[in-house]
Amino acid sequence: MDKLKRVLSGRDAEEPSGLAQAIDATSLGWGTRVKGFIACFAIGCLCSILGSCLLWIPKKGLVLFAVFYTLGNIASIGSTMFLMGPMKQLKRMFEPTRLIATIVMLLCLILTLCSAFWWRKAGLALLFCILQFFAMAW
């Protein structure tokens, strides 16, 4: 378990420095991180499933699907921040090999919510949800 903690925290081969020890002392414990990951990931899955169920409601179903699907994706992304920390997550998301997928995914998250709330275009919201899925898979 200690090896897994070191790999996820990025200190696989090096000894912890004084700064690393200070950061570890002020951060969440490993058990709390795992519990936060599980809770946040479960909320993300629940929102996505709820959005899929709400899709079949007449008139407002597509907008509700877009909103809950987007919130589910945000929660799922946030869940991994519990395991590796927010700064490392952001650094990995914006690595050159993942930069385009990250930008497309974040843009689609924003555009989905804009099309659902401000533009009131259900078809456009569905298109951005599909693009969110492909960007997350990419």
UniProtKB/TrEMBL annotation:
Subcellular location: Membrane
Organism domain of life: Eukaryota
Membrane topology term: Multi-pass membrane protein
Keywords: Membrane, Protein transport, Transmembrane, Transmembrane helix, Transport
UniProt keyword Transport present: yes
Pfam families: Got1
Primary residence: membrane
Segments passing through the bilayer: 36-57, 63-87, 99-119
GO biological process: protein transport; vesicle-mediated transport
UniProt cross-references to InterPro entries, sorted A to Z: Vesicle_transpt_Got1/SFT2 (IPR007305), Vesicle_transpt_SFT2 (IPR011691)
Gene Ontology cellular-component annotations: cytoplasm; endomembrane system; membrane
Family of the protein in this entry: Belongs to the SFT2 family.
Described function: May be involved in fusion of retrograde transport vesicles derived from an endocytic compartment with the Golgi complex.
The protein's name in its UniProt record: Vesicle transport protein
Species assigned in the record: Phainopepla nitens
